[in-house]
């Protein structure tokens, strides 16, 4: 387990109620054309285009507020949002409404390398999905794809601006209300999407309602500012909150709040996945040697991935259970990290989570 201490604050309990509207096996990908083999290229023929490069996922950012500004947010407004106390991350993207298969859909034009961090963990982790987007295809929210009857790999006309025809590269839960389709920036420009029409804000430790009020004051009455922690959205499958709750059920008597507290201390719920100075990795900061014994395939994809919250969180529950959490919680947490200060901090945070979500 992780040996170096992360400075934590009880106020950051709000980071758990994330907005991911995901299911366990929700990503579908269209067929991707393979580049021609060297033997198939004639002498002097141009080489196949290089595959698009998408930066590897380094962290997952929990969006707390989504603001939609019809005319686009100005640079000064975005700068003021960034200066709100405890705001950690802000991203702006172009967007607009277009027609797809005869129905209105809301589209965002995003940089795959940058935007993937703001999506639910199961979506953010899919390198193939974001590579398809970077390659000029579009990605549809799982629900939108089902509602519209879209077929993977098929080409569709996105009626807006130059109305380009674009192939569907994949579907996945996007975790944002009203967002149906993602396109790469170049396609968004052709479609005439409005720059900075959507603003996503991450502010751990700030009450979402307070954050909404401050952002609305900056953006004005025409902006629609949404709290992404409303009761009907928080804790759905794919969120860190739900992952902690699901994992705890495998160890009767172990509260999900203990897993949440460990997740906060170890990586701030996936924000800092290491490696630590001791070599620990992933959202629950397992040492690779420990992972060999306790690694779990939590999402049923056939592998136990130390970097995946879908695997690491159930593995942490299994470790604590094996360490006797049902009989002596203090001893089990001490086994996770051999330090009394660590146990005391985890238990204090667990109590804070219990009170926050009572």
Automatic annotation (TrEMBL):
Annotated ranges, domain Transglycosylase SLT: 273-327
InterPro entries: Lysozyme-like_dom_sf (IPR023346), MltB-like (IPR043426), SLT_2 (IPR031304)
Taxonomy, superkingdom: Bacteria
GO BP terms, alphabetized: peptidoglycan catabolic process
Recorded GO MF terms: peptidoglycan lytic transglycosylase activity
Gene3D superfamilies, per the entry: 1.10.530.10
Name assigned to this protein: Transglycosylase protein with SLT domain
Species of provenance: Actinocorallia herbida
Native organism taxonomy: Bacteria, Bacillati, Actinomycetota, Actinomycetes, Streptosporangiales
């Amino acid at each position: 387990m992780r040996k170096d201490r992360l400075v934590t604050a009880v106020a950051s309990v709000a980071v758990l109620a994330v907005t991911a509207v995901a299911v366990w096996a929700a990503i579908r990908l269209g067929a991707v054309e393979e580049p021609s083999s060297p033997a198939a290229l004639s002498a002097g023929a141009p080489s196949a285009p290089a595959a698009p490069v998408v930066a590897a996922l380094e962290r997952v950012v929990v969006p707390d507020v989504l603001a939609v500004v019809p005319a686009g947010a100005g640079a000064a407004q975005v700068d003021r949002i960034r200066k709100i106390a405890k705001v950690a991350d802000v991203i702006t993207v172009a967007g607009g409404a277009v027609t797809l298969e005869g129905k209105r859909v809301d589209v965002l034009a995003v940089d795959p390398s940058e935007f993937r961090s703001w999506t639910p963990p199961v979506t953010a982790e899919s390198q193939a999905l974001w590579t398809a987007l970077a390659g000029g295809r579009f990605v549809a929210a799982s629900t939108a794809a089902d509602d519209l009857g879209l077929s993977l790999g098929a080409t569709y006309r996105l009626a807006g601006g130059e109305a380009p025809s674009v192939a569907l590269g994949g579907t996945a839960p996007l975790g944002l209300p009203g967002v149906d389709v993602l396109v790469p920036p170049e396609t968004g420009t052709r479609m005439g999407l409005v720059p900075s029409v959507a603003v996503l804000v991450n502010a751990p430790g700030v009450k979402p309602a307070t954050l909404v009020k401050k952002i609305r004051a900056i953006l004005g009455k025409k902006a629609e500012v949404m709290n992404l922690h409303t009761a009907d959205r928080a804790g759905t499958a794919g969120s860190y909150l739900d992952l902690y709750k699901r994992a705890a059920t495998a160890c009767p008597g172990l509260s999900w709040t203990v897993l949440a507290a460990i997740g906060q201390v170890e990586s701030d719920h996936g924000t800092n996945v290491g490696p630590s100075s001791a070599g620990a990795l992933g959202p629950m900061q397992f040492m690779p040697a420990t992972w060999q014994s306790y690694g779990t395939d939590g999402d049923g994809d056939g592998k136990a991935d130390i970097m995946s919250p879908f695997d690491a969180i159930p593995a942490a529950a299994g470790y604590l259970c094996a360490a006797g959490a049902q009989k002596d919680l203090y001893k089990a947490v001490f086994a996770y990290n051999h330090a009394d200060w660590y146990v005391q901090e985890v238990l204090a945070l667990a109590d804070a989570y219990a009170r926050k979500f009572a």
